[in-house]
Every structure is written in C-alpha cells, then in structure tokens.
Amino acid sequence: EREAWHQLAQSTEKFNEVDLDTVLAEAVKRAGELFSADEVDVEINLPTQPPRITRGSTEAIRYDGPPECAPTAPGNVICSPLESHDGSADVGELRLRFRRQISLSEREQYTLRTFAAALCTAVRNAAAFAEAQRLSANHAYAAAHDPLTGLANRRRLFAFGEELLDDRSAKGLTGLLLIDLNHFKEINDTLGHTAGDKVLAEVALRLAEASQEGDLVSRLGGDEFAVLFVGLAAPALAVPRARAVLGALDQPIEIDGMRIGVEASAGVALAQGPGGMQELLRRADVAMYQAKREGQVVAVYAPARDTANTTRLALSADLSRAVAERQFTVSFQPVVDLGTAEIISAEALARWHHPAQGDLNPDLFIDAVERSGLLPAFSQAVLDQSLRAAATWRAAGFNLPVAVNVSPRSVLDPTFPEIVAQRLAHSEVPAEALVIELTESLTLSQLEVVDEVLRSLRDLGVRLALDDFGTGYSSLATLARVPVHELKIDRAFVGKMADPTEAAVVRSTIDLGRGLGLLVVAEGVENEEQRRQLWELGCPAGQGHLFARPMPLNRLLATLRRGYDGRPGVLAPPLHDTGSVIRLPNRRTTQYRQGELG
Ligand code: C2E
Ligand code: CA
Ligand code: CA
Q: Which atom in ligand 1 lies closest to the alpha carbon of residue 331?
C-alpha cells in the first residue's frame, strides 16, 4: 500500500511543471506506468487552448493534436474526468487503454481519481502560465509598437538604440534618420483623418521596405518617423542610405482613387560622444529643421549650426577667453562683377576657431557676443583684421575695398565712429576702401542716435551698405533715412528667383537701387542661371558659392594672383562668350570704381 502511494506521489510530482507540453507528456508516461496501461490518452478542453489529445505509452508519445484527427484506438478503456477533487473544474479526460479485459480495484479507482485531480491542477497551472505569457508578450508588443502602422514606437526605438550604443562589440557606426512629412496637416484637414491615417500607414510600409535589414524603422508620433541605421561602415554612407529610404516617398500615394504627393524633410546624425539616444535624436532633429529651413530633403547634423551649443557657449567663460586668445578670425568672400567675374571687393565674415567645437559661423555666436558685453572688443578685432587684410592685398596690387559687417548694437554706440576712425588711422587703408555693412533693423529705421553715428561714418569717407535688403523693417523707409552707398539683396530672394513673383521683388529692388544711384550687390549667387538672370535684370555685382566661398586671407591672395584664364583678379569665365566680351555699360560698375579709384 505504502509503495503504491509513494509511486503515486512521485508520478504526480513529475508533472508539476509550467510547460503544458511537458505536463501532458509526463502524464501519459506516468499513467502508463502507474496503471500498467497499454496506451494512455490525455484529452484537454480549455478555454484558452485549442482542444488537444496527447496519446502514447510508457515508451513514447504517438499522437499529439486535435481530437478530430486522432486515429481510432482499439482496446478496453477506463476513463476519468480531469477534474479537481471537489469536481469544480473540468479540463478534459484521462483514458487508459488495455488490450486485455480489465477492472480496477477500489484502491486503484481512488488512485486514478487522485492522479486525474493532480493532473487537472497541473494542466490548469500550465495553461494559466502560458496564457499569462501570451498576454505579456502581447502587452510587450503593444508597449513597443505603434498601433496604426505596426512600426516600432519611440519607446522601442530608445530601448533598442540604447542597447546598441552600449554594445561595445557592435560593428560599425550607428546613425539616426529623422523624417517629418511636410504639409501633413493639410492632408488631414482637407481629406479627413481616415485618409491621413492611410497616408501614414502607406508611408510606414514604404519606409520599412526601403530600409536595410537590421535597421529599425519607427514612428515617433504624428507625422514623424525615424530610421535607426545599424552598422554603418563609414560616416559618409549615412546620406546615401538616407536618400535610399527617402526615395520611397517619391511616388505619390494613392488613397481612395486620389493621388497624393508626400514630401518630407529629414535630418541625419551619427551617434558620437555621450548623451545616448536622447542626444542622437536631438541632433537629428536639429539637422531636420535645417533641412526644412533650407528647403532640402535631407541635411546632416553639423555641430557648427547647432544653437544648443551656442547657448552653452554663451553661458561659459569661452567667450572672454576667445577674445583674449584671438580665437576670432575673419574669412573673406569675394564680391564680383557679374558680367566679367572680376573681383570688385571682399566681404569679411567672422569665424570663431573654438578649441573644442571647431570652426563656428557667426549665426551661432554673434548673439552671445552681443549679450556678453564683449561686442566692442570683438568688433575691433574684426575691424583690425579686415583692415590689415585689405592693406595686404593692396600692397599686392589689388585695390579692392573690404566690407565689414557691423552689429546693429554698434550703431547705437556714439563712440563707434571714433573707434573706426582710430583703426583706419592705424592702417594704411583709405576710408573709401572700407565698406560698413549695416543690417536693417528696428534701431536703424527709428533711433536718432543712429542718424548721428551713420552721419559721422559717412563724413569719415567710409562707404555704407544696407545688408539683407528686403528682409528687415520697412525697407523703403530705412532707405529714405539712411544715407547708404550700396544695397545688398538678401540671399533668400536670390535663392527663390526661379519663381516669377520673387524675381519681381528682385527686379524692383534693383530698379530702386539704380534709381537712387546705389551699387546693388546680390548675395548667395549659387548657379549660372541666377547669375545670368540677375545680370539681365540689371544687377551689376554679386557674391556666392558660384564664384567663391569665404576663405582665409592667404587663400584669397592666391586666388587673386592666380586669376582665371591668365587674368589676375578674375574668378570665372565672363557671362558672354569669349571673343565677344561686352564692356559693361558705365553706370553698372564705374560708380563703385569711382569711389575707389577715381
Ligand atoms: P551676411 O552678411 O548676409 O553674410 C553672407 C552669408 O552668406 C555668409 O554667412 C556667407 O558665408 C553666406 N554665403 C555666401 N555665399 C553664399 C551662397 O552662395 N549661398 C549661401 N547659402 N550662403 C552664402 P556667414 O559667414 O555664416 O555669416 C552669417 C551672418 O553673420 C552674416 O550674414 C552677417 O550678418 C553676420 N556676420 C558675419 N560676420 C560678422 C561680423 O564680423 N560682425 C557682425 N556683427 N556680424 C557678422
Ligand atoms: Ca554682410
Ligand atoms: Ca546678407
């Protein structure tokens, strides 16, 4: 008797398992042993599991699957419901099959019921465990995915990304492409949310198809998507990979018979330095906004254009050290005669050679300089370097003026003309060879002190230019009030000149400038098309990447000397075919030269 109970206890203990398959297989084997049955069926019927029969002997499982597919089994059968002792739960049936005729003793019947009850409990436990696992997997999926598109969500992107960034054995570089759809709100507003959702789902599908295996495509929310590039072999590969993904959006999306073109702006950044995913995403975001501002499809993160860096700079002691240690320098960008490509002056553009952040452009630090109280020191450094540079190229035989940008704050400072006079006196450069570029601003158009400062500068013989013309406050009012010699058309207008309305703005600015006898200079001339168009509209001068980018003094000198096609001081071919060079109509360039040479 004791032996029998012991056996029973051992058998039931064996199927105290969490895995349902193991429980069923153990049950078949143990029941076979315990009751010397030739074959055992465990049939289960659970709400959370498909109905199933597991059949076998002490040696092996012979069938495991849906009851309707189980082969008919011969033999004498003894059944026991799989129910708890109190009969409350019924999860199926245990069947013992014998080749011979059999009847169970009372003790054996009791053993069978006990065995069945223990099996019932084990099955229920295992099923509950499986169900809990399924739910938690579902839950984990929902927590990591966007329900609309099925893409990974922000949380998953971060979890996956952080793990990758922490993994020292990971091969290659990690990059993040952040994509924001343009005009998505309009789609939503005009076509409705259902159409909007369909667009998002289609975008998701296309991005997923266009990305490489191993990359993680996610939707961050709204119309923002991100692709985590994994294992980039070189930084230079990030942009082609980004373009490949974005190319998926070139074809219009068809929704309910309508063809909708989707445009996107994207930024790409590489994981570098500390800050993890948070910093990587922030950088991609900075690049994305840069792309939006400049109308590009994709821009790469550039530390020099990250204003978060500037804010940090402004707060640090960097600025005063920069002045003391002469970290500010100037680059020079040639201004040319649009017709002949002859260099007619050079604009000084400040640069900060920051010891840690590399070269920074003025957009990033001018604000900080102005707020720091270091503006006078900074302006003087720029002015001095510019005048010294002008003296150098004049000594080399190039009588070109230098144009220096002046902060609106400086023209509020009554001592500013005095400083300019001093610096000029210290240099060998005549006042007419200095152009001071003023940005249109509220101060310029309204304050009395400004009039005085400008009059003094003019009296010194310095030329004044109105910079960024057209972007500031009531341009015409400023022009009527401020006695300038030059107008600089802002590069924003030049960049959009292919559009007839913008071209009309440029044309009227040129006409206005010429009417007032001013030299008109176009900024941001980036291609021949713009050069020709400006020339045809009557604009005599320009600067921009088409001709030259800003460069250090020694490079400018070399450029001047080398010239183009054997002609020093020239940067490019003339607008008109060689052999038939058209001499400039007098009023176009001579005005400038008169001040300078005449
Ligand atoms: P800005 O006076 O309008 O200077 C022209 C800017 O256009 C320069 O940017 C130049 O690099 C850029 N540029 C030139 N050609 C092209 C082109 O073809 N395409 C495009 N997209 N851009 C072109 P930079 O050097 O970053 O200067 C930005 C601004 O910072 C200047 O605009 C000027 O307002 C200010 N700035 C520069 N140097 C000084 C300075 O010494 N003092 C003060 N107060 N402001 C300065
Ligand atoms: Ca300027
Ligand atoms: Ca400008």
A: 25
